Amino acid sequence: MGNLLDTEFTWTDAQGKAYTKSEALTELAKLKGSGDTDAKVEQRSYGQVVAVMASHGKAYAFAGCG
What we know:
Layout: E1 10-12, E2 18-20, H1 21-33, E3 40-46, E4 49-56, E5 59-65
Antiparallel strand pairs: 1-2, 3-4, 4-5
């Protein structure tokens, strides 16, 4: 996924903490490795644009690139 993200990518979580691209990828890897199967992930492709949406309970994340 890191190859899809811009070098200037940033992510801000629900608590307002900002992450660099490297930090965000580390946090996402932790979530993936947690074994939590309750998360719902949807991926959609619109030509040259890709959108990935994930939700778990009241937490939502969206990423798009194109």
